[in-house]
Fold each of these.
Amino acid sequence: MAESAFNLRLRDSLDNLATNHLERKLKVLTGEQGPWVEMDGRRLLNLSSNNYLGLAAHPRVKETAARAARLYGCGSGASRLLCGNMALHRELEERLAVFKGKEAALVYSSGYAANVGALSCLVGRGDSVFSDELNHASIIDGCRLSRAKTEVYPHKDLAALEAGLRRALAEAPQARRLIVVDGVFSMDGDIAPLPGLVDLAEKYRAILMVDEAHATGTFGPGGRGVAAHFGLEDRVPIIMGTLSKALGSLGGFIAGSADLVRFLTNHSRSFIFSTALPPPAASAALEALNILEEDPSLAETLQARAAYLREGLHRLGFNTLRSETQIIPVLIGGPAPTMEQAGRLLQEGVLVSALRPPTVPKGTSRLRLSVMANHTLEDLNFALAAIGKAGREEGL
C-alpha cells in the first residue's frame, strides 16, 4: 500500500530535521534518577537532570510516595473540582504558600500547565504582556493563549522593557499590563534582574509574575527562590514553581494572594479540566519540602558544586555564557559539532543534553550541564577530565 500524502509530508519534515542535526530522540534509562544513571547497560555520570537536590531518589521521599500509594491509590480519580481534591493537595498548597511567603497556592498537574493556565486567564484581548526573549516555552504558549498583545523584550534589557511599558500605559491606561519572567533562565542559567523588574512593575502599574521553576529549592535562602534571594517576596504578586525539579516529584503551582488562587480556581482551564495530582506525587513533594526545611543548606551545597564545575570549565577555556546557577551551558555554536561533542562525552561516560534550535537561538547550540547537590567533587572532576578530552579531540 502506498504511503499517504500525510505520512510523506511527515517523513520529509523528519528527514529535514535529521539532515540538519536537529532531530530529537528519546533516551531510555534504567534504575533510579541520581548523580549516576544506567543507559544501554552502561553507568553514566548524569549531568542532564533537573533533579537538582537528588530528592527524586531520596529514601524518605520514595517511602512516603509508596505509603501514599498504599493508603490512597495511584491516581486521584478526577479533576480537583469534581472529586479529585484530597487533603494531601490542601496540605501541600498550604506548605507551598508558607515556603514562598504568600497567602495561598494552587497546585497544577505540571509546571507547564501552571504557566499556561495562569497566563491565559490573567490577561486577555486589549491587555499587554511583556516577556523576556529567553523565557520558557510554557510562558510563550501562555502568552499566545491569552490573546493579549505580547511584547518580547531583549534579554534582561530593562530600558527596552520600560519603553514598552510606557507606550502601553499611554495607549491604554485602563488595560492590564503583565510582566512575566523566568527567575533562573533554563537555557543560560542566569538570574532575572528582579529588583529592576519590581521597580518598573510598580512604576507603570503592571503585574509581575516570576517563574521560579529552576529556582525553587535551588536558590536563595533555604532554596526559597530568586524573590527570596533579593528579599522581594512581598513585591512579587505572582510566583510560579514546580515540584518536578529540585523537589523530585511532579506538578507545578502558582503562589500569591488568596484572591489570586480563588480566581485561578474558577478561570484557569488547565487546572479546571485536568485530573488532580496523584497522591504519591503530592506526598513525595511534601516530604521533599520537609527535607529541604530540615537542611536549608542544600541549596548552598548545590550552588557551591555548580561554581566548582563552572570555574573548572573556565580554566579549560570553555564559554559558559551568563551562567550563575546550577544550569551551566557550554557554547559550541552549530548543531553538528554540538551533537558530536555530546556523543564523545557519552563515550567517555558522561550524559549531557545537546541543545539546538529551536530550543536555543541559531548559532548558539550548546551542551547544557545540570549539577546536582549530591554530585561529589570526584564526580565533577571526572566530568571536567572528560569534557577537556572531548574538547581537545574536537578542536574546541
Amino acid sequence: MKRRRSGADTAFKSMTLIFASSAVVLSLIYFFELYYGSTLTLKSGISFVTGSTWDPNNQVFGVLPMLYGSLVTSAIALIIGVPISLGVAIFLSEISPQVLRSPISFVVEMLAAVPSVIYGLWGLFVLAPILRTNVYPILESRLGFLPIFQGTIYGVSVLTAGIVLAIMIIPMVASISRDALLAVPDSQREAAYALGATRSEVIRMSVLSYARSGVFASIFLGFGRAFGETMAVTMLIGNTPLISASLLSPGYSLAALVASEFTEATTQVYISALIEAGLVLLVVSFIANVVARLLIRRLIRSREAASYL
C-alpha cells in the first residue's frame, strides 16, 4: 500500500514538474524564435532602438517613436486607471454592503472578458468624437500653455489610446487588488480599531500597507497588459511614427506597428525588422516583470523585518 502511494506521489510530482517547466520552455522558445527571426536587422545593433526613422522602402528601421508611444500610452493608462482600480478594490473589500459586493464584482470581472477590439470600436466611434469636440478643445484652451496639450486636435491620439487602455486595465488591477485586500488578516483591522483608528485610517495605514505587495503586483500586471495591447491601440493611436510632446497628437506603438504592417512586409529585411520590434516588446515586458518581482520581494522582506521589531 505504501509503495502504491509512493509511486502515485512520484508520478504526480513528475507531472506537475513537467507542467511547471513547460512555461519556462515556452518562454525560451519565444525568445529564441524572435531572436532567430530578426537576425537580419540585429546587425544594426542599438540603432534599431535609438533610431527614429521607419522607412521600409530604403530599409531604414528605427523603433524609438513606437517605443515612446507604447511607454507613454501605458503611463497614461496607469495614471488614470490605477486610482480608479484601487477605489473599486477598496470599496468591494472594505466598504461595500454584502448585497452589492457580488453584483459589482461580477460586472468588474465581466469587463475583463470584453475583447479588446470591442474597446477599440467603442473608442473610435464613440469616445474619440466626444473627446475631439467637447474635451480636447477645453484642454487646449485652458491648459494650452503646457506642451502636452498643444497641437492640432485629431481625436485619435496618444491620449485617446491611453484613456481606453486605462478602461481596459481597470478590471484586472481592481480584481487582483481586491483579492490582495481580502487576504489581509482581520487581526490587522482589529488591532487598528483597538488603537482608536477610523475606518479610513484603518484602510490607509493597516490594510493597504499590509497588502501593498499584491497591489504593486496588480499595477505591474496592468502595465504589461497596457504595454502589449494591440487592437485597441492600433485603432486609436493614429499610427504615425512621431515623437511629440503633445498628448493630443497621433503616435505609434510597437504592438500596433507589428499588427498593422506585417501583412505589408514584402522583403526579408522588412519581416526581420517587424520581428525585432516584437523582440523589443517582449524584452521590455520581461524587464518590467523582473523589476516588479524584485520590488515585491523587497516590500515583503521589509514587512517581515518590521514584524520582528
